[in-house]
Design a protein that fits this description.
Shape: globular
Number of domains: 2
Radius of gyration: 19 Å
Strand content: 25-35%
Number of strands: 9
Strand order of the largest sheet: 1-8-9-6-5-3-2
Helix content: 25-40%
């Protein structure tokens, strides 16, 4: 009986320690992450922009977020706000903070459907090179993630959310969508495609 109690106490201590570590890593804030995540490393297609030296011009809000809305499959999400951060660590938590070393900017925008039932965000990180981009995608897969964008509603349900991160040369794009509030299953396929389409800004840099 004493042995069982000792094991139980040890388990509680480990859980508490893990929770404390998570709390410490995220500055004492809750750090939700996507329930479903897909990460993609860069490919040879992006060799022309594999380093920032090859593609030195900073990203602009107008370039990455040219329209007030994005759409796919009849689902439209309106842009609710944008920002540009020069301290990329402000946009991530956990092991992703170390992975953004050398990042010079991250552009972030919040999107939502008109009825507010689906919320999403898109981020693009300007890193030193493709190796750094791949490291960030790996860090987002486990041990760290992006923070919620300003304006994200309290009902953003990360437990039913999905996200995708892509290393595109020396950039990393992250799209993250979720239903808002309680409810049943919500098809996030088209909202995800709509928000992820903002990564097309990187494709334009390949031909400019």
């Amino acid at each position: 009986m004493r042995k069982w109690i000792a094991v139980a106490v040890a388990a509680v201590v480990l859980v508490a320690a893990g929770a404390a570590a998570s709390w410490w890593l995220t500055g004492g804030e809750e750090a939700p992450r996507a329930a479903t995540f897909r990460g993609e490393p860069t490919t040879g297609h992006y060799v022309p922009i594999a380093t920032r030296d090859l593609d030195p011009e900073p990203l602009t809000v107008a370039e990455v977020f040219p329209a007030e809305s994005v759409a796919s499959g009849g689902v439209t999400l309106q842009r609710r706000g944008t920002e540009t951060l020069t301290d990329c660590a402000e946009a991530v938590w956990g092991s992703a903070e170390a992975a953004v070393a050398g990042c010079t900017q991250v552009l972030r925008a919040h999107y939502a459907t008109r009825d507010g039932r689906i919320s999403g965000q898109f981020l693009i990180f300007n890193l030193a090179d493709s190796a750094a981009a791949d490291r960030l995608v790996a860090a987002l897969r486990s041990g760290g993630f992006v923070r919620s964008a300003p304006g994200t509603p309290e009902g953003f349900d990360a437990s039913r959310s999905r996200a995708q991160a892509r290393a595109l040369g020396h950039y990393v794009t992250v799209s993250w969508v979720a239903p808002v509030g309680a409810g049943g299953r919500v098809d996030l396929t088209h909202p995800q495609v709509a928000v992820d389409s903002l990564g097309f800004a990187v494709q334009k840099r390949l031909v400019d």
